[in-house]
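Much of what follows relies on a compact textual record of a protein's fold. Here is one such record, which you should read through line by line:
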Amino acid sequence: MRVWLVFGVMIGLLAGLLAQAVPARAQYSLDISLEDYLAEVGSDAKLVAAGKLVIDGQRMRCGRRPTVMNPKFDSWGGAYPGFVILNPDRIKDLPTPVKLYVYAHECGHQFVGRSEEAADCFAVKRGRRYGWLDQDGLEDICTFISKLKGTWNHPPGPVRCKKMRVCYRDAAPRARASQN
């Protein structure tokens, strides 16, 4: 009986620690509307209409989904159903391929769900297909992401990079116009 009591206390403590480790953005309801999100984050956030986002000269699209530029967001980017979030202050000094990857990764969640590895693969394939990601850009992304130790919902960076290299290899590059 005492073993079960100790086990129960340990499970309770572990659950409490995990609840504290969940970032603030994960505590939002996953079905928060764009309007409610904008009201909650305040006037510092700026809404960019779908298809109007330009990052370092590259127009970025995520279907019909707008982007919220939120300088107070706790990460480089995020996604809720129906919209993408970027923190312009956190991405501004990143190499261009990494900025584009962050956006495409968050956009990927709109199509592949919550899986980080699937969103990574979506981003890499999209970058290769649309011509903004080459081997050097993939190296920039891997250098950036390999520093990340991982969290409760993100595998460690080196693991993600290894899988992104496979996605890059398997992705079809952008078709080029005929030279004739």
